[in-house]
Structure formats: C-alpha cells, structure tokens
Design goal:
The protein has about 675 residues and is mainly beta. About 5% of the residues lie in helices and about 60% in strands. The radius of gyration is 25 Å and the shape is globular.
Amino acid sequence: MNINQALSCPANCLLLAGSLLISSNFVFADNQIDDVIEIKGEKTTFKTNYTLLQRQDFLNQGVNLSDILQKQAGIQIRQVGGLGNQVSVSIRGSTDKQVQFYIDGQLINSGQFGSFDLNQLPLDQIQSIEISKNQAVGTGSTPIGGVIKINTFDPNKPQTRLSGAVGSFDLAEFSALKSIQLGNHQMSINLSYLTTANNYPYKVPAPLYNPQTAATENLRNNDYQKLNAYFNDSFVLDDHKIKASFQFIEQNKNLPSYRNNSDKNQASLDTYTRRVNVSDDWLIGFDLLEQVSLEAYLESKGEVYQDKFISTRQERHDYQTDTQAINLSALFNLDEVTAVPYFKVFYSEYESQSFLGKQGLGCSGLGSCDIISEQTQYHLGSRFEYQNSDWSAHLLLNQLWDENSNRINQQTDYAFEPKLNSENYFTFDSSLNYQIHPAQQLSFSLARGVRIPALFERYGDRGMLKGNDDLQPEKSSTLSFNYLFKAQNWQLNSSIYQTDQENAIVAIFNSSGVGSYQNISASKILGFELMAQYALSNKLDLDFNMTLLDSNTESNISSFNKKMLPGIYHQQYQTRLNYQLNQNIKLSLDVSHDKDLYFSRANIDKQRAKRTVVDLNAHYQLRQWKISLQALNLFDQNYQDLANRPAMGRAFKLSFTLEEINL
C-alpha cells in the first residue's frame, strides 16, 4: 500500500472508530530513551519528530525565543528589519501560516492573517518549549508544517528573579519576576520592557537626498518598544488542578522607508494584546475514566497603523481581532491503551476601520472597504496512545467543521453582498515506534494535514490586494522514517521524510498591479535531517545539525512549473562547540552555513543566496549572579535575509540575571 492509498481511508470509518467526546493538553506519550550522557549545551529530549526544551536549558543564555528555535534542525527563522517586526518560522520547508503556534494549549495563529508573532513572549514567561515537526502536539487538526507549543511559567516554589540587557543599536531591556506561595495558591507575576533604536547600517537603494546613488545609512524611524506583563495563579481545589493566567502586551513599532530612508517618514504600527487562559484538570480516578479537562481562552488584539509623512494628511487604519475558545476532553486508561476524546470550539472576529484625515474613506467598489469577518471552527475527535516494553504507537483522528463570513463595516451605496463559507475536513496523524534495544529506536509516522485559508486571504480588501472567497484549503500528506541511537558519549537522531502539498495559496498580481489570492500549485518536499551530540570530554562537547531539502513545484503557470520552493534554504549546516572553562565560565561557538535559497517562485535570481554566520557566547555564573555576552554575526558577513533585504550586521549584547530562591 502506497502513501496515497493509505491517506485515502474514508473519514467517517476512521472517525467512528476514534471520536467519542470532547480538547485538551494531552502530552505526547511516545516511547522515550533516557539520556545516558551529559550535554552541557542545550539539552533536548528526542521522540518521533519531537523535541522538548526545558526552562533550565535556555533561560540564562541572554537570548530570545527565535534564537533558541533557529538552532534546531529543520527550522528556519524569517525576521525582517530588526526587532519589532513579526518573526515567522518555517519547519521542514513549510510557510509560517502552515505552522501551528500554541500558548498553554491554545492555538493563537491569527484568524486575520493565519500567522503569529514568534517573539511576543519573553523567555522569563516560558516554562518549556515543545516542537513537533509534522504532527499535532496533543489534540486538534494535524498541521502541514508542524507545531510549536509554549507552556508558560508555572512555578513550584517562591523565588525572585531580576534580569536585564544592553546591546548594539541602543538596545535595553529589563525584566522582574516574583513568585509567592499563598495558602494553596502558587502565584507569579512578571513585568518586562524592551526598547531599541534599530538604527543599524542599511544599504539604501535611493537615498532621499541623492536618489541616483545607493548608499549605506543608519536606518531612520525604525525604533521599537515593548511592554509585557504576565500573571499566573495555580492551585488545587479538592480533585481539581486549576491554572489561570493573564498576559498584556503593548508594542510600538516605527516603520522605516527602506527605499529612501526618509527622515520625513513617520509611519508606525502600535499593537495591544490581552490574553486570558483558565484551565481545570479534574482528577476523577474512577474506573477507566481518570481525568476530565476544561479550558477557556480569550484574546483581544488591537492594531493601529498610521502612515504619516510631514506636510501631508495622516492616514490611519484600526484593526481589531477578538478570539474565544473552549476545549473539553476526557482521559480514559485501558491498561496499555489510553484514549482522549475531545471537543473544541474556536471563534474569531476581525474588524477594520480606515480614516484619512479623520474622514471615512468610503467604499466605492474601486477603493478599500472596511469589513467585519468571522470564523467559527468545531473540532471533534480522539487521540489514542499504546505502549508496552518494546512498542509504542499513537493515532489522532480529527473532524473539523469551519464556518466563515464577511460583511461590510461602513455606510455605502456600493452593492456589497455578504459572503458565507461552510466546509468540513478530516485530518489524522499516526506513529509507530519500536525500541530495538535500550540505546536504539526506530519509528515511522504518517499524517494528513490541512490549513484553512485565513480571513484576509478570503475576504481581504486592502487597496491593491483583494481576497478570494473561492479559495480551497491547503492540504498535505507526510511520510517520515526516524532512527535514534545513543551511546555512552554521543547520540544520533536522523529523519527522512516526504511531504506532498496541494492548493498552495499565493498572491497573484495582474498587469495593473492588483493582486488576489489564488490556489496555484502543488509541491513535493523530500528531506533529510541529522542531529548529533558528542561529548569530547567532561568539559567539551559538540553539537551538529544538518538539513537537506529537495523541493519541486507543479503549476499551471509555466514559469512557475518544475521550480524549487522560494523562501527557504535547501541546505543547512549548524555546529556548536560548548566548553566549560571552569566552574563559573562556559563558552560556546555557533557556526551555521546555509545555501540554496530562492527569492522568487520563478527561480530567476542571478545566483542562489547563501550565508555563513558565526556567533560567540560567554556565560559567567557566581552564586545568584549570571552574566552573558553575545557577539552575533561575529565576522559581519553581509547577506540577504529571507525577505531579500540586507540583514542586520554584527551586534553585541550583554545580559545579567540575579536570581534568589526562597526569599
């Protein structure tokens, strides 16, 4: 039976076998090999296409979340224009919209655009990071591009922690965290603030005062500030384990003119996010039924975009996105088999309002229209886990019902008809793992994934870019084989996989410059990953990652047919050397070499982009004090980032932490 035959099983026959009830935070239970060596760098726990990073592995390195993730094999980070711009991620050749991003079990991909901002959480607020390369983490629909799940800080003892940093381009940040125990409540609060001018040297194509000659100038109007507050309360009430958390984020980002670097430009984007999450794990322990879990989630995100230019009228656009979700699940234990039936409800509403000189733009059929879009999703399914001494397996079945609509949000004489879409989709993922002996594991996984078009892709109406309400969802099928081997001083983890995708959603622009989203192509990705860790001595260890991708697209447009996927490096090599100089000082050297990146779907670039980046890190610890020094892009190599713009050059960052326990 080939992969296409395996993935064509009728949805109803599989769903009836697995779905009973109702979503949750059920953690992977694949077979796991315990570590037998000590790695002084970032310690990871490997399972089938899965990596777990614990708080102690990354907290005191003076880095952010994207720095941690880009060291993982198969992950590529896209960041444009320094801090403050949205940071997106690709896993095994996917787009960022195909990657599911969770915070405390709740999917936070934007209903508006389908993506997420990777660096919205400071590391102080993170307990652990879970990465799945092609399968769901727990329950829900199977992703096309994998999962990144953030579990927020949940302390088990009182503590006080202060941290801060200064760095290149006027970077300054500060964070204070306090945890206390009050009765049976374990509470914590974190406040953090970051500011930077982002005024790094940039090659401007047409400088304002000499547009005929490109010149390198410090970027203007590129500064960024972020205020982040987080509160958490965890407690036990009878048989209930309850956790409630609240997060507030305010971001103020000025937007430069990359083409002429004008000092008259004053464009900006201000973002305000409020997020509330409450979960209740009811430990029943009654016969086969062990636990019932309930989770509720609320998020409100407001964005204000202002396009200001000295001596001209101010143009302003307000965007509001409100999201609510409820998850309900149950855990049944049947000896070697566990079952987690679940039900999830997700609702998102997006609203836009535009102003020019404080006057409504109006909707004539030629200009932009303000809209209200809504999306409601229902997930019904079950996850099954099996494990004995040598074998383990999982099967996740999910039926998704999606309803979305669009209506106008302003008074107009233009004939605008409301639009409504209602569809349903079936996804699944599965794995089979065999413990050859205590040091070796062989596994196989098979998955079918889906990505529903974002509201903007279906209903967007922003000047020269229009939505398409006839869009079909992106779909994928993935087959993966994995081998894990551990010895006394080293470990090796390898994967080979193939992903077939169809209905890729791309913005197509006509000769008049008007764009619309279309389903235009299918693609195939064949990949190989190798992750190795070797302890050279009790003071020195070496990490090595390699990712090789071969991609091919199929399109009705001849210039895009039989081409490599754009926007991803097809070869990546990463090496990290960790050296424990003495009890207090640890040094690490990171070298990465990436090549074969295309910026266009037609692959017409004169040469394939490549880069080699060297980072140096030094860590010093004395009792409660921890100090880190980073030198990023040490040799200041010039290269184009994944958006084909000159990347930030050499940068330095000095971080400190003062941590006191049991105060």
